[in-house]
Design goal:
The protein is an alpha/beta fold and 364 residues long. The protein folds into two domains: 4-41 and 90-160 and 249-322, FAD/NAD(P)-binding domain, CATH 3.50.50; 47-88 and 161-247 and 334-359, 2-Layer Sandwich (D-Amino Acid Oxidase, Chain A, domain 2), CATH 3.30.9. The protein is built from ten helices and 17 strands. Strands 3, 4, 5, 10, 11, 12, 13, 14 and 15 form a nine-stranded mixed sheet that branches. Strand 16 (256-257) and strand 17 (260-262) form a beta hairpin. The longest helix is centred in the last third of the chain and has 28 residues, at 305-332. Bound molecules: flavin-adenine dinucleotide. Flavin-adenine dinucleotide is lined by residues 9-15, 32-35, 43, 45-48, 112-113, 142-146, 148, 165, 205, 207, 243-246, 264-265, 270, 275-278, 281.
Length: 364
């Protein structure tokens, strides 16, 4: 007899949204996380094209409503009109936590899971690093970049390429409804971003997929902050540097193995094009929750595969297009000339087409 219907390993965005959905459907769930505080993060950047209502989130999680994206290369700027948000990451996770039905969902924090154990062709337990076991009917890997179970079972390569970013929370002198994306060698050959927050604050960050640049990330961010056009927007009043990584993989389509389901960055569901994760991992978690619900009600593990099928119909071709764009941008970023050229091309394209590329949502 299993104590839990579902064990979710990882209480980040994907794990919490899934726990909320399954708790609402009255399934007995355990969320395990290695952190003792689920509202303590290593970075806070969060801009998103998300439809908050769709995920039952309120406007209280919004830092700023954004209606312009400025793309900067060395010699050109392109403006893209849009509707998106910068979000208060802590407020998003707090709302999710508060909406979780604790009659059905338990938490065990400060526990690091190291592996999943199979007996008689099904997964039966996950084990922590002290060899304690936790059993359930269905398991979920929502451990983000760590991908503890997805890597163990070969759903994600053990040696994935990561995009790594560092950021400062700084004083912001620009307009609150505009965000900036900085591309090309002038911006240190990776990509920079400025995302406004409430109260004349903003996050300025720099990220790269290029291993040769990763060592000096903070120094590169410091150099960007000193550029004259950036000094007009940003004043550093704290040198506290934060950061994190996202997986850069080929597009992954396999998320389910027997009674294990993977969501979020554990299977690289962050959109390749601009590293927007939340909207995509939330939608995947909702799709996964429906498949888990029917598998539990019908007592039929094969119904978990509906998660993969629905995901593919909704996302696969968009992810493939975004992946191609991401590889182009990565290549172009090494040269100011190429990025200037890309920027000129984007000036000739319609706002709609540019927005499709950035959001990773193509109409056809
Ligand atoms: C620098 C940077 C900037 C970003 N900017 C944006 C942005 O502007 N907009 C956007 O939408 N997305 C952004 N993203 C991407 C987004 O943050 C991720 O896609 C998202 O956090 C993934 O959520 P997740 O729940 O899959 O993983 P995570 O948020 O990483 O959560 C994983 C959880 O699993 C736990 N865990 C890990 N290993 C174990 C273990 N062995 N045992 C138990 N628990 C474990 C961790 O403690 C954590 O709580 C950015 C990412 C980075 C790094």
């Amino acid at each position: 007899m299993h104590q839990y219907d579902v064990i979710i390993v990882g209480g980040g965005g994907a794990g919490l949204l899934l726990a909320r959905e399954l708790g609402n459907k009255k399934h007995k769930v355990l969320v395990i996380d290695k952190n003792t505080n689920l509202l303590d993060f290593s970075f806070y950047t969060l801009a998103s094209f998300i439809n908050l209502e769709k995920f039952n989130l309120t406007k209280n999680v919004v830092s700023e409503n954004i209606n312009k994206i400025w793309l900067h290369s060395k010699n050109f700027k392109t403006k893209i009109k849009c509707e998106l948000y910068t979000l208060d990451k802590k407020a998003v996770h707090k709302e999710l936590l508060e909406a979780i039905n604790t009659d059905f969902v338990d938490f065990k924090l400060g526990i690091q899971i190291k592996e999943i154990v199979e007996e008689n062709k099904l997964f039966t337990t996950v084990k922590d690093k002290n060899n304690n076991s936790y059993s359930a009917k269905i398991f979920v890997d929502a451990t983000g970049t760590a991908g503890v179970l997805s890597k163990q079972l070969g759903l994600r390569d053990k040696q994935n390429k990561l995009a790594t970013g560092v950021e400062y929370n700084a004083k912001y002198l620009g307009k609150p409804d505009q965000i900036y994306l900085l591309l090309g060698k002038t911006y240190k050959g990776g990509y920079g971003w400025i995302f406004p927050l409430k109260n004349n604050r903003a996050i300025i960050g720099f990220g790269t997929t290029d291993n040769t640049l990763k060592k000096g990330l903070k120094r590169r961010l410091d150099e960007i902050v000193e550029l004259p056009e950036i000094k007009k927007l940003i004043q550093l009043d704290s040198k506290k540097v934060e950061g994190g990584s996202i997986p850069i993989t080929p597009v992954i389509e396999k998320f389910v193995l027997k009674n294990l389901v993977c969501v979020g960055d554990s299977v690289s569901q962050v959109n390749p094009i601009v590293g927007e994760g939340y909207k995509f991992i939330f939608e995947s978690a909702v799709i996964a929750s429906r498949a888990i619900d029917s598998a539990l009600i019908e007592n039929d593990i094969s119904l978990l595969n509906n998660y993969e099928k629905t995901w593919k119909n909704r996302f696969l071709s968009n992810y493939k297009r975004s992946k191609i764009r991401q590889e182009q941008i990565e290549k172009f970023s090494k040269s100011d000339l190429m990025i200037d050229f890309g920027m000129l091309l984007s000036k000739l394209r319609s706002n709609k087409k540019n927005l499709e590329s950035l959001s990773g949502e193509y109409e056809n």
